[in-house]
Design goal:
Layout (H helix, E strand, L loop, with lengths): L2 H11 L4 E6 L3 H11 L3 E6 L6 H10 L5 H10 L4 H8 L14 H13 L2 H11 L5 E4 L5 E7 L4 E3 L1 H6 L4 E8 L10 H9 L2 E4 L4 H9 L2 H9 L3 E5 L3 E3 L8 H12 L6 E5 L16 E4 L4 H6 L3 E5 L2 E4 L2 E4 L1 H22 L1
Parallel strand pairs: 1-2, 1-7, 2-3, 7-8, 8-10, 10-12
Antiparallel strand pairs: 4-5, 4-6, 9-11, 13-14
Protein name: Putative gluconeogenesis factor
Organism: Lactobacillus rodentium
GO molecular function: LPPG:FO 2-phospho-L-lactate transferase activity
């Protein structure tokens, strides 16, 4: 059955494919935008352990979950006019000493968090106001602190501080910033993962965008228990201070190690050659080199590997092509749904 036929079956059955995307950073909205265009039933689970930039400053001032990744996901799934999105995304320039660097959307999210009493309800209210097509769930209802142990045995706390060490990370974990209680995801997050056809991890920073979600104990357990296909979209480039010289198999091994077993079912791997002469490292100096493909290493971890040209390279930068990636995700999700129905 061709991909086009798959889409006809989905329409006839009147059921949108249920896709959960877990992560943060700039890669997440690329996938969400493309899923929205394909009319998927989307749930975005967004990391809340960021402590940099405007998000970090707001977090330090008023002690809320960092809003930056949530803001970008809201915009990617919103149906409001583009002009209103531009206002929401507007960032004050440096001539205003008080507001300098802050995005209007971050301030609105922080205000709603204060009004509603928690970030989860704040995001749900704002999702309605912005006519979001899908669901956006913070991974936790409390601000979290990212912690890391390095290979040399030293430890550090805070995303910015961890990446600044420029050391190989052995493992990460999260703690509640404001209490000693164990971080938890709320029930709608867990339900979305358990009911999904596909759970997508990435693309995004391995140690600071993807893993901070998976090490929340009940969220990680939901990923281990779900019957959905667990898909990992590997980054195109290695990242300074996080994945220096990593192969695709190295990325997957780190995720599986943190989950406690081989839980990645399918890996999407870019097979297209990257034209490094067009790549301007001055624009993205945190990226080092293309991630090496290691198919033997992936096979040893029991992964199905899908290799294709998944990149969109322009203006000296390299990104995932959202449409190409989402075409594969929807095929996989449809197959997973059919398998589940046969088992019932």
């Amino acid at each position: 059955m061709t991909y086009g036929e798959n889409r006809i079956v989905r329409v006839i059955k009147g059921r949108r494919p249920k896709i959960v995307v877990i992560g943060g950073g700039t890669g997440l909205p690329v996938i969400l935008n493309a899923l929205k265009e394909q009319n998927a039933d989307i749930t975005a689970i967004v990391t809340v352990a960021d402590d940099g930039g405007s998000s970090g400053a707001i977090r330090n001032y008023i002690n809320v979950v960092p809003p930056g990744d949530i803001r970008n996901v809201l915009v990617s799934l919103s149906d409001i006019p583009e002009k209103e999105k531009e206002i929401f995304q507007y960032r004050f320039n440096s001539s205003d000493s008080f507001f300098a660097g802050h995005a209007i959307g971050n301030l609105i999210i922080a205000a709603l968090n204060e009004m509603q009493g928690n970030i989860f309800d704040a995001v749900q209210s704002l999702s309605k106001m912005m006519h979001v097509d899908g669901r956006i769930f913070p991974a936790s209802n409390e601000p979290l602190t990212l912690n890391a142990e390095f290979v040399d045995g030293t430890t550090e706390a805070g995303e910015t501080e961890i990446t600044a060490q420029d050391k190989q990370i052995k493992r990460i974990w999260v703690t509640n910033t404001n209490s000693s209680t164990q971080p938890e995801a709320v029930l709608p997050v867990l339900a979305a993962i358990m009911q999904a056809d596909a759970v997508v991890l990435g693309p995004g920073s391995l140690f600071t965008s993807i893993l901070p979600n998976l090490v929340i104990h009940n969220l990680g357990e939901a990923v281990r228990q779900t019957k959905a296909e667990v898909i990992y979209i590997c980054n195109i480039m290695t990242q300074k201070g996080e994945t220096d010289h990593f192969s695709v198999a190295d990325h997957v091994q780190v995720i599986n190690d943190h989950l406690g077993g081989n839980y990645i079912d399918t890996v999407l791997v870019n097979g297209a050659k990257i034209d490094m002469t067009k790549f301007n490292p001055a624009d993205y100096d945190e990226y080092l080199e293309p991630v090496r493909n290691d198919f033997e290493g992936l096979r040893k971890q029991g992964c199905r590997v899908i290799t294709a040209d998944f990149i969109d390279q322009h203006s000296g930068l390299v990104f995932h092509d959202g449409k190409k990636v989402v075409d594969e995700i929807l095929n996989i999700a449809f197959d997973a749904y059919c398998r589940r129905k046969q088992e019932e």
